[in-house]
Structure to design on (334 residues):
């Protein structure tokens, strides 16, 4: 017997595509909703009810959650640094999605869980000035000075989840994702994040016989990256657990961006000269996840190594790249 109806908002995207697949496997009836035409969805699961709708609109949100017991609110207009630094207003407009999805879920009355995907971009910029970063603890989000645009919207919306729980009893759960990567994600077009960008650039150089590549910033910036399988496991865990404060959901394996590029060069079997574009979007100098609390609360933290996850990601992007551009001269450049 099906477990009930789970709605994956933003399920035409990277994380939502995997989440919908997992929920189907768990025995849920699944409704996937996304604004993109279905041809552009990263994964389409024929067993699910697949709906194209703009969730900025309250009436669409009401239709989206009709009859559901669970809502996973992943829909957002977002991307990597190249997108969020140049599209602050668009990022902030996702507040309409979050507001209307919360209102619709509250009014529907049958929603047992409302999961919201917040971000490490909520953390105070002052705590992320050095590459030699102290991992971010949950309390470092306040006093509020998050990433401009995108981070402010996320911080506001996670706060709204808190008050819908306190004032209306809606069972909200919030995780702060730290840079998630894997196959079936964005790898070109301007919204891609560093892991996919490094793979694409190095694959393009390999296939073109180029000897150089561009890196944004000096490459000494540090980040941690979480593989998609860990992210999905974490979402399930957060959703099952009792209500609590927002927690980090991220890897604590720190790397420099240069280190990330060198790892991918190792997969490709090439070594490139690095041209540093110091005018490109850079974001914070350093960011890592402190996993003390997630280990305390859930007895678990993401653990798939960067090398293992990046190899799978590289292999998938390689296939996609060759399928789209062939193995000769490439056109995908960012
Ligand atoms: P994604 O861009 O692949 O997926 C988001 C989906 O939301 C897209 O398919 C998009 O079309 C859809 N969407 C945008 N506006 C919409 C609207 N008005 N109505 C309906 N759908 C709409 O991104 P993702 O990496 O899968 O991220 C999922 C969630 O996790 C987002 O909320 C994001 O902010 C959050 N997050 C992701 C990361 C990461 O590194 N991937 C890190 C922190 C937080
Ligand atoms: N995207 C990208 N492309 N980044 C590059 C590139 C490139 O070609 N070259 C170097 N970088 C550097 C960026 O300048 C930045 O300093 C670092 O790699 C990481 O960039 P991103 O992966 O794009 O983003 P981020 O880690 O700063 O922020 C991301 O993670 C947050 C959660 O941790 C964003 O995707 C946010 O939306 C997300 O919430």
């Amino acid at each position: 017997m099906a477990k009930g109806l789970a709605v994956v908002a933003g399920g035409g995207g990277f994380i939502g595509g995997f989440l919908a697949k997992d929920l189907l496997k768990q025995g849920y009836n699944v409704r996937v909703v996304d604004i993109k035409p279905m041809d552009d969805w990263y994964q389409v699961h024929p067993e699910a009810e697949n709906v194209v709708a703009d969730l900025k609109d309250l009436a669409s949100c009401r239709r989206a959650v009709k009859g559901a017991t669970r809502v996973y609110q992943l829909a957002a207009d977002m991307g990597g640094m190249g997108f969020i630094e140049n599209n602050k207003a668009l990022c902030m407009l996702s507040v309409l999605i979050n507001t209307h999805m919360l209102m619709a879920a509250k009014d529907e009355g049958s929603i047992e869980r409302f999961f919201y995907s917040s971000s490490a971009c909520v953390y105070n910029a002052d705590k992320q000035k050095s590459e030699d970063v102290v991992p971010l603890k949950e309390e470092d989000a306040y006093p509020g000075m998050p990433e401009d645009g995108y981070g402010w919207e996320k911080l506001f919306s996670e706060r709204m989840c808190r008050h819908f729980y306190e004032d209306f009893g809606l069972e909200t759960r919030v995780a702060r994702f730290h840079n998630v990567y894997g196959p079936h994600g964005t790898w070109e077009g301007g919204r891609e994040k560093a892991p996919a960008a490094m793979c694409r650039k190095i694959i393009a150089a390999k296939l073109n016989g180029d000897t150089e590549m561009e890196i944004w910033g000096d490459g000494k910036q540090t980040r941690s990256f979480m593989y998609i399988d860990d992210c999905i496991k974490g979402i399930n865990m957060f959703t099952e657990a009792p209500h609590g404060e927002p927690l980090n959901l991220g890897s604590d394996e720190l790397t420099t961006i240069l280190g990330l590029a060198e790892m991918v060069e190792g997969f490709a079997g090439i070594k490139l000269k690095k041209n540093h574009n110091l005018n490109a979007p850079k974001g914070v100098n350093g960011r890592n996840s402190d996993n003390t609390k997630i280990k305390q609360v859930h007895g678990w933290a993401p653990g798939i190594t960067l090398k293992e996850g990046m190899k799978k990601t590289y292999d998938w992007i390689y296939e996609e790249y060759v399928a789209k551009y062939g193995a000769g001269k490439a056109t995908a450049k960012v």
In short: Residues 223 and 248 are 14 Å apart (CA to CA). The mean pLDDT is 97. The radius of gyration is 19 Å.
